[in-house]
Q: What sequence folds into this?
């Protein structure tokens, strides 16, 4: 059995740990051959594929990024006016020529969509969810999320002392275009006073009132955690928009911090290393059992799998009844 493995979309901590989990299980336990496909689906278009062995898998557990490289290539997306190039056919030819019996696709929502299309085209596919955003539908958690939340929480912790020293409002912007999971979890863990998510509409006047009320209660500084995807006016970035509005509404000195790609870089946490390893091992088990067209998923504390056709095109968003939102509201944290 020959399996090809690729990583696609934005990187996150834990990808190399899951590559290691897939490949070591495949080689040691099942005696399979493993091939690394470079730069996501582009590697299937360019026939950029190399064999992986034990020596290629050394030192991966705590290594950030991805040893296979990644891209945002979407081979099934047709570009209007582009010279027609049959990318799906090229990929199928590469897979046939290389004799790959199965492709393991590691990625976020875009990757799951492409993986589902590849499966529809007749390829044996198993996928693994990865994203710091934690917005892949069908799994309770994706690896990378815990690492990003840990980094963001540390950053929020550090803002408290400088906010207190200067008696300022500090606005911190964390990643999450459509889903506010990082803002919610790091905001709660870091003691944010106001947490703004793309999923929960807010009234900017209420945010100003919340800050003024805190001052009246003897709290001269505030920490505001915002997800990058909250709605803004005039194309402004989230932190800039909120900081300017707060200063205008309250007259309080307000500063902004954009955490950016620091959330995606570096070593995974111990939790992410183990989740990535378990998911990688489970992907290989699915292959061994001939269970294709499925995405590995964490349900409760168990690693299972869900049909790729059910995952593709859906997003896992924060809902108003999430226990952290309910608890946060009870404690007086403002969500808009
Ligand atoms: O990995 C997900 C994510 O981090 C989003 O939160 C962010 O908006 C996006 O990727 C940006 O990634 P890039 O600049 O690599 O496209």
A:
């Amino acid at each position: 059995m020959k399996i090809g493995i690729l990583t696609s979309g934005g990187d996150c901590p834990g990808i190399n740990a899951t590559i290691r989990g897939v490949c070591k299980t495949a080689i040691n336990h099942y005696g399979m051959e493993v091939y690394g496909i470079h730069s996501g689906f582009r590697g299937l278009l360019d026939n950029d594929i190399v064999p992986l062995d034990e020596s290629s898998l050394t030192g991966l557990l705590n290594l950030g990024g991805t040893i296979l490289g990644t891209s945002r290539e979407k081979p099934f997306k047709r570009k209007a006016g582009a010279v027609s190039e049959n990318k799906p056919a090229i990929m199928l030819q590469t897979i046939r020529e290389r004799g790959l019996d199965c492709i393991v696709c590691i990625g976020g929502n875009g990757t799951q969509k492409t993986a589902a299309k590849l499966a529809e085209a007749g390829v044996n596919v198993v996928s693994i969810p990865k994203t710091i955003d934690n917005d892949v539908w069908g799994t309770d958690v994706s690896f990378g999320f815990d690492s990003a939340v840990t980094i963001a929480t540390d950053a929020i912790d550090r803002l408290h002392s400088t906010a207190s020293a200067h008696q300022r409002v500090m606005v911190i912007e964390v990643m999450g275009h459509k889903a506010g999971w990082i803002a919610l979890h790091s905001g709660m863990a870091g003691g944010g006073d106001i947490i703004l998510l793309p999923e929960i509409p807010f009234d900017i006047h209420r945010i100003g009132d919340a800050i003024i009320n805190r001052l009246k209660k003897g709290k001269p500084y505030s920490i505001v955690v915002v997800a990058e995807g909250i709605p803004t006016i005039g194309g402004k970035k989230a932190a800039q928009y909120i900081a300017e509005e707060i200063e205008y509404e309250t007259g309080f000195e307000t500063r902004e911090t954009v955490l950016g790609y620091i959330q995606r870089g570096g070593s995974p946490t111990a939790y992410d290393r183990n989740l990535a390893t378990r998911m990688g091992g489970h992907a290989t088990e699915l292959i061994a059992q001939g269970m294709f067209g499925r995405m590995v998923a964490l349900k409760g504390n168990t690693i299972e799998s869900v049909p790729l056709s059910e995952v593709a095109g859906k997003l896992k968003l924060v809902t108003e009844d999430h226990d952290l939102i309910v608890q946060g509201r009870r404690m007086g944290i403002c969500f808009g």
